[in-house]
Amino acid sequence: MATIPAAKIRFREPQIEMAHGAGGKASRRLVEGLFAPLLFGASPGPLGDAAQIQINGTRIAMTTDSFVVKPLRFPGGSIGELAINGTVNDLAVSGARAEAIVVTFVLEAGLPTEILEAEVRAMGQAAGKAGVRIAGGDTKVVEHGKADKMYISTTGIGRLLSGVEISPQSVQLGDKVLLSGPIGDHGITILLARGDLDLEADDLRSDTRSVFPLVDSLVQAAGAGVRWMRDPTRGGVATSLNELARDCGHGIVLFEEKIPIRDSVRGACELLGLDPLHIANEGQFLAIVSAELAETALQSLRATPGGEEAHLIGEVREQPESSVLVTTLYGGSRIVDMLVGDPLPRIC
Amino acid sequence: MCLAIPGKIVELDPENTNLALVDVVGVRRKVDLGLLQDEPPVPGDWVLIHVGFAMSKISEADAADQMQTLTMLGEAAAAMEEVRGYGLQEDSPDQYGKGWKQ
Amino acid sequence: MKFVDEFRSPELITKAGEEIRKLADPSRHYRIMEVCGGHTHAIYRFGLKDLLPVNVELIHGPGCPVCVLPMGRIDDGLALAAEPNFIFAAFGDMMRVPGTNGSPLEYKARGMDVRIVYSPADALKLARNNPGKHVMFFAIGFETTAPSTALTLVRAKAEGLLNFSVFCNHVTIIPAIRAILDSPDMRLDGFVGPGHVSTVIGCRPYDWIAKDEGKPVVVSGFEPLDILQSIVMLLRQLRNGEAKVENQYKRVVPWEGNRAALRAMAEVFELRPYFEWRGLGFISQSALKIRASYAQWDSEQRFTVPGVRVTDPKAAQCGEVLKGVLKPAQCKLFGRECTPEQPVGALMVSSEGSCAAYYNYEHRKPVTIASAAAF
Predict the structure, then answer these.
(1) What is the CATH architecture assignment of A168-336?
(2) Does C108 reside within a domain?
(3) Do C122 and A198 make contact, defined as CB atoms within 8 angstroms?
(4) Residues 44-103 of C with CB under 8 A from B
(5) Would you call C19 and B73 a contact, using CB atoms and an 8 Å cutoff?
(6) Segments making up each domain of chain A, as ranges
(7) Is a pLDDT exceeding 70 seen at residue C200?
(8) Residue A99, min C-alpha distance to chain C (Å)
(9) Do domains A47-160 and A168-336 have the same CATH topology?
């Protein structure tokens, strides 16, 4: 059995903090500085949403994710649905159709059975809707207080679609940025559902869903032009695009007026001083598409149920290198960076 | 110190006259009207909200006035240009802006 | 959004930008200070500097209540709340501000009960709902926020709710402006005045800036058109050799201020003889403390405050950046030892601090940007 060469870790922080799990800069430092050198060898290359493996000539994608959400249930969904859709989506944006998922539950002793039952039902339904088989799983129970009611972890495998080769390196100057729909629904819904801010909104719900049907349409219509895809979950569109910019070295310029956002999400962001580009989404994806096929790509999404609000929101340019810039119609612009930790409301 | 957002008073709290439900494009919150007790707002009024308190009533008239001034920006100057083109005015940069309503 | 979207109209913003370019005398270099951190944030968020000619320079002022809070005060607040039955409640702005042993969020990860609140009223509600705990509200802000804290204390007293206290760090804006103008290295032509502070204090408190210092002041709103119109008004005054106080934010700011808000503040607060401002040193009569009549609700009168004084590292040039003498990128620590993720000095800890705003929104911008029209 081959041994992984022991690389030196570059992660200098003495203890793990909340920020390391938030999906932004700190998370990246942990993954690149500790996990990658020890597990993936000295030069692992860019880390995507799913791993690609060849088994007997068949290309398989594999991914894993864990779900820690408070509250467990919220308008538009629950932790169970996030757990299924999240993994289906990670495979989808790697260009794969999810085939099977295994699930691990870490449950807190004292958890009422009806809560567990509700989540398992939700997972079954989400899996059925997404056309993916739940093939097995594992359960552990920990002492009261050691898990926030429940943690769910899902690992999925899928078959890579033909006609799509995605990597940050294939992104070229002039390519366009495609977004499947309005941003911020999930993160703002969760923030409001926690109840600490005393805000209510009737039409706000999580956007959790499988994006595979949209990815499938996209690949069929414009697969040759699809360079890269990502689902902008924790850290939002800004974090996903910053990761891409860093990996490909180009600049990504977004046009603010083209970015779709619901009124109530916008209102909540203005009220709380949050940037919608940093808010988590659970039912959207980003794609970088060649200029020639961008319009075809856009129309393929808009013609697919659930993709009606897709927009071309930006393009790849030489400047600003490795960064993301948002511009306005009147010529003003600002850099948008990755998130550090979770978005916090502000009053100043 | 400065994040404050306009919101519309939807209804006063029947149990507490200091509180009102305020709407910001579909997002709603109870807001304390105590700082406006000298001129309490009523449903339909727009107020400026900061940390859950109404700071001031928003004057639609003043807002409209301001929009008017902004729309006129550059237009008096353009009119001046045209008149100057007729050769009737002295070519003096001080002619810009004097006598504008603020 | 009404009263917001109209003031972000791209056509009118472009027009206002053109007007500024027309008004700016090419033989002059204008240095205009926006006092309030909220304006600093808006200027960067909307990319307004891109619209200004090179000779109209915006200098960021000291109106960031998080930035000017000495680290010792954060240590004090966290020390007070270290008791097992305490809940430390504060605005989101405070959560990542580092104390000597970590920020409130880091204390939370280590087990302290730390809650983010949107309103001091929510902190009071926490006290109502948790009778077995003591809720300590870490209050920050200028005169915009102080009346809300004041009214919350009035309500707490009226309810007799004793498991609630406020650790008061409210500061006042006029002494800060005075400190800026007294600074020998300072050369400013005019001020964009703090719009939301002015909804409380009105426009009269700025009279001395115009009369005694000869600098025009335009009290400004926070939307792009507000800020640009205020700059237009300042440039007009400067062109005409005038120095007066004007109210650009008429739709919201009453010239005389908000009497009810001022009454609430007078009922609950009095001025501290002096207070330390991070980067500016000790300034007299510049901060609020809670009166003896509300002693039960004042964390400082009710509990023993350690009174820690923590000085900033000598290498950090916060004071000079705060006074507008240095630009953020000119500080030796900027972007290296001092970043928003590991802030060394005051101006990096808050997203509206000039160093953080510049770092987050600006410093990697290329010099020329093609507009959306080219897309």
Answers:
(1) Alpha-Beta Complex (3.90)
(2) yes
(3) yes
(4) 63-65, 91
(5) yes
(6) 47-160, 168-336
(7) yes
(8) 38
(9) no
Q: Is C115 on the interface with A (CB under 8 A)?
A: yes
Number of domains into which chain C is organized: 1
Q: Which residues of B touch C239 (CB under 8 A)?
A: 97
**Interface ipTM:** 0.94
pLDDT tens for residues C219-267?
Answer: 999 999 999 999 999 999 999 999 999 999 999 999 999 999 999 999 9
The CA-CA-CA angle for residues B31, B36, B40, to 5°, reads 90
Residue C69 lies in a domain: yes
Q: Using beta carbons and an 8 Å cutoff, which residues of A are at the interface with C? A: 17-18, 25-26, 196-199, 251, 253, 255, 257-258, 263, 266-267, 270, 272-273, 315, 317, 319-321, 323, 325, 327-337, 340-341, 344-348
CATH number for the domain spanning C340: value is: 3.40.50.11740
Instruction: Using pLDDT thresholds of 50, 70 and 90, give the confidence band for residue A43.
Output: low
Domain B5-58 listed as CATH 3.40.630.10: no
- For residue A150, what is the enclosing H or E element? strand A150-160
Question: Which pLDDT value is given to residue A77?
Answer: 96
Q: Which of residues 331-370 of C touch A (CB under 8 A)?
A: 340-341, 350-352, 360-366, 369-370
Please, what CATH class does the domain formed by A47-160 belong to? Answer: alpha beta
